[in-house]
Amino acid sequence: MNISLKGQVALVTGGTKGIGKAIASKLSNVGAQVVVTARHEPKDQTSEHHFITADLVQPEAAEIIAKEILEKYGRIDIIVNNAGANLSPGGGFSSLSDEHWHNDWQINFLSVVRINKALLPSMITQKHGVIINISTGAAKQPIWELTMSYSSAKAALNVYSKALANEVGSKEIRVNVVSPGVVKTPLMMEFIEDIAKSSNTSVDEAFKTVMNKVGVPLGRMAEPEEIANLVAFLVSSEAKYITGTNYSVDGGALPIV
Length: 257
Ligand SMILES: NC(=O)c1ccc[n+]([C@@H]2O[C@H](COP(=O)([O-])OP(=O)(O)OC[C@H]3O[C@@H](n4cnc5c(N)ncnc54)[C@H](OP(=O)(O)O)[C@@H]3O)[C@@H](O)[C@H]2O)c1
Prior knowledge:
Belongs to the short-chain dehydrogenases/reductases (SDR) family. This protein is an alpha/beta fold. The protein has seven helices and seven strands, in the order βαββαβαβαβαααβ. Helices cover 45% and strands 14% of the residues. A seven-stranded parallel beta sheet has the order 3-2-1-4-5-6-7, with helices on both faces. The structure holds NADP nicotinamide-adenine-dinucleotide phosphate (NAP).
């Protein structure tokens, strides 16, 4: 398959680590001009990507990012809303305060709504655009003791993405969701270390607990590049009839057909 994104401008939020970093690298390898955002600029930030510092939980961040992209490039073709995190403690409903719920919904749901709202008018004018919202298998397969508020926010992201795809399809804009299962990233490693600490076990034991809870037929975590490969296909013209869909990349973990 010959994917080329030459001449296209792509935004990847959270494009400095883990899945976002792999997506940014893949998209620029196939020709896109890539803008990445994060709260901290990494020391090894490649000059191939235009970097914007932004904390996406701040309501004004989306407008600032959109303004900078449109001033610099005059267009936006691809948005990959990747930044996200499970910011709450484990333990189920009684461990979760209003603040935990608020934090998870800000970064995993509202920040995406704001980025899309700020950039969609340009896509509509261009009559061209692709949006990928990165969700999680845990939105369909919540683990109550570990992911209750995070899973809820990502499930809302899935529903919002379907509604948005229905709204903007006639304007030549496609919207899809990619739902990873368990992926070897800094976020996943922190999550496992937190479980080890709170349950007073080793990191190896906590790793096994997560793998057993999720149940991955392929028997391993994904590499970030394995998520990036699907994103590159979905944003390309090879996928020009695909919209309103949610793709799992989870080694077979989702136990439904
Ligand atoms: N890893 C997995 O197993 C897994 C599974 C399913 C779904 N996902 C989803 O995949 C996405 C990426 O996860 P990952 O594991 O690659 O995460 P990661 O390794 O923690 O990387 C997250 C990226 O987002 C940025 N970020 C975090 N909070 C931010 C904020 N408030 N404002 C702006 N940028 C922020 C981080 O940079 P800074 O810290 O510098 O801001 C970093 O670039 C997330 O949406 C996650 O929910 C991951």
